[in-house]
Specification:
Layout: H1 2-22, H2 31-42, H3 46-62, E1 86-88, E2 92-93, E3 105-106, H4 120-141, H5 144-159, E4 171-174, H6 192-202, H7 210-229, H8 231-237, H9 242-257, H10 261-278, H11 286-289, H12 294-314, H13 330-341, H14 357-367, H15 381-384, H16 390-396
Parallel strand pairs: 1-4
Antiparallel strand pairs: 2-3
């Protein structure tokens, strides 16, 4: 009898181990859910196939995308090296009352189109979107043409000697007449979290090699070290508002990607203090409410905390159910924000640009899986009237 029980246990263990080995190495996504979606595609599940067809249409368009690089910009950072990423602060403008318009002056929430002259920020965003769509499509459909394209784009930005980005953000969000870069610019590399997931999805393809993964991990190791030790990195680490939130999201994600789970866990535990300082007991976010686009920034910061909680869980830390000393929590922040984002209550703070409900759509979709008892609140009815996102629907809406 004991021998039979032991044999049964061994069989279960083998099945579990085999299943885990088949799961993609992703961090902001649910690997088990992705594996299930892949199986449903193979089983011709019509609901999933319909969403995948929408995703494939995006991916097919991206097959024509030319590789992008930091080397494409027409400007050169003060380092003299175009391999260094650079960007300009979005809310700072030419000051006509001063000689040569310098130093630039701040207009919070009003984006200066001049920033688009430096292409690094735009291109890294395009890269993240393309690699995410292509790698996910390739993983779900087992069609290597999508993985081939994603791999080519990633190698061009991160691996190829002639075109790769140096792993630092010394020159992010510079203010003309004031500085050549700031810690605040680090929020622009939150797109790298999606790229880390893309690598995990590509590992199931024939085009992506173990050498590619090692090269990407080596790049992320250097970038994470820069985040933790540089002046700009330390400034962003200490940021009290959404910048601090997204710093933790990035640092935890990158630590998981390079296999340093202990560092990821330590950062996740540390992030609790930042959550403590950001929320009131009823879930308001005062530092974001002080902005000229308060609804948008409250949403973005909460997106950051959803990301931190998702990543922290993979490091063995539960932020979903964590409560601050005042009783605040991620759920309370979401409960407070929801009626305003859905237009059920009048927003009384500033919002000088149009609010993007699509951002709230993805946020709520993720939250529903952690706060099941509040599903009636998060039914998506008003959002789904006008918003549909095949990636969000595939990843979160079961």
């Amino acid at each position: 009898m004991k021998l039979k029980q032991a044999f049964s246990f061994l069989l279960v263990l083998i099945v579990i181990t085999k299943t885990e080995a088949q799961l993609p190495k992703v961090y902001t996504m649910d690997p088990s859910h992705l594996h299930e979606l892949r199986n449903k595609v193979q089983q011709k599940d019509q609901q999933v196939l319909q969403l995948v067809d929408s995703l494939k249409r995006q991916a097919n368009d991206l097959l024509r995308m030319q590789p992008v690089s930091v080397m494409d910009k027409k400007f050169v950072p003060v380092s003299g090296n175009k391999h260094d990423y650079m960007s300009q602060a979005p809310y700072f403008w030419y000051d006509s009352s001063k000689p040569n318009g310098l130093p630039y002056t701040r207009r919070d929430g009003v984006r200066n189109p001049e920033i688009n002259k430096i292409t690094d920020r735009t291109y890294i965003g395009r890269l993240e979107n393309a690699s995410r769509v292509l790698s996910l499509t390739g993983y779900l459909t087992s069609d290597n043409k999508y993985a081939d394209k994603a791999a080519a784009l990633l190698r061009h930005w991160f691996i190829n000697e002639e075109t790769k980005m140096n792993p630092n953000l010394e020159y992010g969000q510079a203010i003309p007449g004031v500085n050549s870069g700031r810690g605040i610019g680090i929020i622009e590399t939150r797109t790298l979290m999606g790229i880390a997931d893309a690598v995990g999805l590509l590992e199931r393809s024939t085009t992506w090699t173990s050498a590619d993964t090692k090269a990407m991990q080596a790049w992320f190791t250097k970038y994470l070290d820069w985040l933790l030790t540089s002046h700009n990195g330390k400034d962003e680490h200490a940021a009290k508002n959404n910048h601090g939130t997204w710093y933790y999201a990035q640092a935890i994600d990158f630590a998981l990607f390079i296999g340093n789970r202990e560092l990821a866990r330590n950062l996740a535990e540390e992030s609790k203090k930042r959550l403590d300082s950001q929320l009131t007991k009823d879930g308001q976010q005062p530092l974001e409410l002080a902005r000229t686009n308060a609804l948008g920034y409250s949403t973005m910061n909460l997106q950051g905390w959803i990301a931190v909680a998702t990543l922290a869980e993979k490091a063995g830390v539960d932020l979903w159910n964590y409560k601050t000393p005042t009783g605040a929590s991620i759920r309370k922040a979401l409960d407070w924000l929801t009626p305003y984002a859905l237009g059920q209550k009048q927003w009384t703070y500033q919002q000088i640009t149009e609010y993007n409900k699509k951002d709230f759509y993805s946020l709520v979709a993720q939250a529903r899986h952690k706060f099941e008892e509040t599903n009636k609140v998060y039914t998506q009815e008003k959002l789904e009237e006008k918003i549909s996102d095949p990636i969000v629907d595939l990843l979160y809406l079961k």
